[in-house]
Amino acid sequence: MYRLAHVINTVLGLAAEQKIMVNSEKLNAMLYKIYMLYIKKTGAPLFADGFLASERGPVLENMNGKTHRQQNRPVKQWFMDEDGETVSVDLSNDKDLKEICHSVLSEWGSKEATWVMLSNARDGSAWKRARIKHLRYLDDGDILREA
Q1: Residue 68 in 3-state DSSP?
Q2: How far is Cα of residue 65 from the mean position of the Cα atoms in its chain?
Q3: Where are the domains of the chain?
Q4: What is the distance of C-alpha 34 from the center of its chain?
Q5: Phi and psi (nearest 5°) for 145?
Q6: Three-class secondary structure of residue 125 per DSSP
Q7: pTM above 0.90, yes or no
Q8: I need a surface site. Which of 16, 43, 73, 105 has the fewest CB within 10 A?
Q9: Which residue, among 34, 47, 40, has the nearest Cα to 104 in the 3D structure?
Q10: How far is 101 from 95, CA to CA, in rounded Å?
Q11: Helices 4-17, 24-42: crossing angle, 10 deg rounding
């Protein structure tokens, strides 16, 4: 399991290499898709932080406060972890994560960032289940079933 800041920095670094503009909504959407595919492939959560069942879709609480002010502007600043370091994941040590990140970035890189991109509109989605049950966070079991 990785620290959320490390995964965010990994995605931002890959996006920058591929010249993909990422704002906070797109970053949230991509992280949700990466998390979903990772838990499906490995059976383990990618990071400990949960996705909030917000009105707009699944949102990472610890990321949202840092990017909220720049919602429609590109996210360019790297995220510090709990130790004050801006670290990213060494993808050479996790082939599954590397494959998933590249797949999501190539699929979504050119798309506009909208919450419709998230699967929260479908019946049976983890987000919709959490909203119906009045849960604060999405359940990993529901995310796995959605994948």
Answers
A1: helix
A2: 14
A3: 4-146
A4: 6
A5: -65, -30
A6: coil
A7: no
A8: 43
A9: 34
A10: 10
A11: 110
